[in-house]
Amino acid sequence: MVSDVHGNARDLARAGDGADALVCLGDLVLFLDYADHSRGIFPELFGVEMADRIVELRTARRFAEARELARGLWAGIDKDAAVERAVRKQYAELFAAFPTPTYATYGNVDVPPLWPEYARPGTTVLDGERAEIGGWIFGFVGGGLRTPMRTPYEIDDEVYAGRLAALGEVDVLCSHIPPDVPELCYDTVARRFERGSSALLETILATRPKYALFGHVHQPLARRMRIGVTECVNVGHFASTGTPWALEW
Length: 249
Fold this sequence. Notes:
Layout: H1 9-12, E1 22-24, H2 41-46, H3 48-59, H4 63-74, H5 79-97, E2 102-104, H6 115-118, E3 123-125, E4 129-133, E5 136-141, E6 144-145, E7 154-155, H7 157-167, E8 172-175, H8 182-185, E9 186-187, E10 192-193, H9 198-207, E11 211-214, E12 224-227, E13 230-234, H10 238-241
Parallel strand pairs: 1-2, 2-3, 5-8, 6-7, 8-11, 11-13
Antiparallel strand pairs: 4-5, 9-10, 12-13
Helix pairs in contact: 3-4
């Protein structure tokens, strides 16, 4: 299990070693590395100094100022074309690193319309869908909910809840974002709450899967906790650790 790969193709190529399958819970793209501001699409286009400033504003939750700064930087540039070129370059490398079989869903910074072009045979992309792996039923719901960050794949709460409902009862519930529990949503380094899903929490309580697995929060206050009978696990910020989390049964 991996999540929040954010451009780490080198370690991704080894993440499935010794496993029967790899499960990826999204965020393949690296737009801006908050730990190393020289990495990602944004500094490649605008330099490290501007990346420093954007991170400073976002960390201070001054989102309107951050958007205004970004608007000025993008003035005169075809933003969609520039970002798509950079994303395509990353996807070509990252999807090539996936072993067979891989089961993957989208993160909030991913661009779902491009995935069919890069997902090779052996990589199954799921969102609001189920898959049987080793006799257990895995349910997948990708993306994030609406936030002031306005990342590429944020969806309405009602749409997200509908995709969860479509899964029914599963053994392992896989999502990019965590359930809406403070200890699972708070990032201790960014010093802010990331947005979790109340519908995901309600689904866990109602359907009682064996596991609920997710990522999104890079340095959570709690990496795992039990909700009822369900073991909830943040499978980790793979971009920085390079180490997958193993699920055995």
